[in-house]
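The following record pairs a protein chain with its ligand, iron/sulfur cluster.
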Amino acid sequence: MTEEKEITCIVCPIGCKILVKTDGKHIKNLDGNKCKRGIDYAEHEALDPRRMLTTSVFVDGGEWPLVSVKSTKPVPKEKIFNVLKEIRKTKVNAPVKSGQRILNNVANTDINIVATKIVKKL
Ligand code: SF4
């Protein structure tokens, strides 16, 4: 069965609207991109959409109650809910260093969550 999706390319400010037809596993047709960079973007977005994740984690005994964190790689869109659920359950003890690994292999994604700020101990 052929699926159609309209994807807005965000690789450059032109923002081409790309119409992608897939069978769910392969690209069947792609139309509307003004350059080749849009092909890669639309293929990934149609078949394996991923997002970098930024959020925060609770800190115990720190100068701030939260520390900002990010994923080390883009997270598959269908796993984002599970990843956020695991992050929400997490609490770290101060002090927290920037770049410190907070979670390994979060939600079995082979992606880590690291701190992006410093939180000193109180
Ligand atoms: S397809 Fe090319 S020109 Fe169009 S938005 Fe993407 S990068 Fe820009």
